[in-house]
């Protein structure tokens, strides 16, 4: 059995976890030999950055060895979690038991803070991509970036593309297309794709810095490292 | 305050609810005057079609009057819920208090079963789209379909497109593009868009019929109406 394990922690962005979880859950229905679990510190409701609370299916202590470990991201709570040594230890231990380690959005900052992205090409949410370099990774602005056994996606909604890519690698392109069909993933963004030039993401750098300073106010050494 | 209310019920497909919830949650952070809630029968963990359980933020009895009510879909549990008179009553009552009623995926079958789509153009997951006609609606194969105050999306992942469209209508295209930017919704399906001809969805009609018969085995009158 290949288990795809998704990490849950307080305050995350639920779409970061649910996009790839839905893809792999569909895979597990179509193809024997796959299952999905959601792993947290305790099996109890945890807040997200929406009004929805999520409840994991397993704890870190009771999880089976995963084939793949996927870490979702979020906003301020995820930035603060870069200083959560207990969570980072959980990630290091679980990653050591996994054959593939992945992330969606700022989940890559947690992998990076855990020391798991040193020397690796990786991506994150565009607003925080450059922080990866502070942890010894090479930021790459692609929808998903695979470097050996580490695969990291761009922000939030990129998790569905990363997951479909992985399904294609694991179970073949035909199966991946079937998962895509059942999830009716035939995107029609009403205003087209992102026009990066018009969006001018650089204008949000001060906002990103401010969020980072607030989130890590109690962790001056880490903040210094990330803003130097 | 314009409240966007998402309906939660047991066994739903979490991506159906989380895609548009994340869009409107981002709107509520960017623009004053909007908030999001998740409404269920009780504020307690409910199963989904993944290992994740979700907890709503409000009950039907305590919810404020919503501006918009959005009903997510799912597989067998949603088909069975077409016979859940208590849930259908909740939907009728909440819809009567809303200015806009929407659905994602087979959520439209619940709106239809509640009598809310009679005479309306509507969509659903491709596998069950034709069932809408049995409830007096006109099935339309578009990513989202608006007919007066009723807006229904295609399957699962179509909720993000519907939600961005609504944000554009409510708060303007620039704001919708900003929400899209922050969710980094710049889709790159690794195998391209769905090739509907190659996918040949008609081949799954027997599978859809079988699921429907199983889900409504205890409700022969409704089953007869839907399969006649």
From TrEMBL, chains A, B:
The UniProt entry, under InterPro entries, shows: Class_I_gatase-like, DJ-1/PfpI, INH-QAR
Pfam families from the entry?
DJ-1_PfpI (PF01965)
GO MF annotation terms: lyase activity
The first-level EC class reads: lyase
Superkingdom, taxonomy of origin: Bacteria
Annotated DJ-1/PfpI domain residues: 3-167
Which E.C. number(s) belong to this protein? 4.2.1.-
Q: Give the UniProt keywords, A-Z.
A: Lyase
Q: What is this protein called?
A: DJ-1/PfpI family protein
Q: Which organism is it from?
A: Kitasatospora aburaviensis
